[in-house]
Amino acid sequence: MPPQPEPVPRLSVIIPTLNAAVLLENCLAAIARQNYPREKIEIILADAHSTDGTRDIAGKYGAIVLDDDGKNMEEGKRLALRHATGDYIAFVDADNEITHADYFELAVKALAANPQALGVEAYYLVSPGMSSFCAYLTARLHISDPVCWLMSSNPQLVARDGEAERWQLPPGTYSYPLGANGFVYRRADLQSAQANEKFQDTHVALFLMKNGRREWLRLRGRGVHHYYVPTLWKFVQKRRRATVHFLRVQAEMPVNWMKEKPPVPLWLAAIYCVTFFGPLWHALRGLVRDGDFRWLWHLPACPASVLGNAWGVWTYRRRGKDKRLIADLQV
Length: 331
Fold this sequence. Notes:
Layout: E1 11-17, H1 21-32, E2 41-47, H2 54-60, E3 64-67, H3 73-83, E4 88-91, E5 96-98, H4 103-113, E6 117-124, H5 132-140, H6 146-151, E7 156-161, E8 164-168, E9 183-186, H7 187-192, H8 195-198, H9 201-210, E10 215-226, H10 232-252, H11 266-274, H12 277-290, H13 298-319, H14 325-328
Helix pairs in contact: 1-2, 10-13, 11-13
């Protein structure tokens, strides 16, 4: 008797939403284009009571919609995790568009072949629909914020096996934010980190790395188009909101990748960003190395990051207990 093919694992795609109609159709259409068997994909939206067409769009694509009564998106992800039935879990934001139809298929196969890896990280790739500023933030910085970019250790490529790449951090540091925007985990690993109750994207990856899973995977040339923000002013507003969200999470669970021996401390990263010569050096270096004029956005983005983060701290101190604050600050 010929060997029977292995059953295809079930995959749950978790998307936190709040008035995301302008982006959600693009996100869900990209998921619908995946060549992963549709009956094996479960889409779960943790929706914080959207008042636009978010829920109608979700219904069009057969997504499960849960009422998210929490005060930040991490609570929504925990809610969705408690309802997820997949063997693998993909975290996708409404501003993500998966770039290739084989992304989920290759991610699941790569994790099955690499039990030492904690998950699959998406590359952030340029889309024709992006502004040049958005392309700089996502495709060039990858981390979408100059302060975090400076504080992140450079991952090291361990090996390539077909489309799968194995990455890890240098010894002695865990300073690198992992876990969102197309990241795929094994459900069993999330359960080991008690993610149903404690989920915060970078916390889970940090926990798994500290417990021996120092490697993660990327798929060559594949990932998401991350439509973060189109303009510099929207970036300042987004950093304000992100800082408020970060401080709220810290108040609940004081785990912080930026304290895990970063190459540059926070105070020095902030000083760098408000000077001219440091950002100019990196902008010119990137321009020469990549031949991409979008690196010139590094000059205004650096002080804009400090402004947005400082604005977020001030906002949190004034309105930190306001449950609607994150919704009010939505960009």
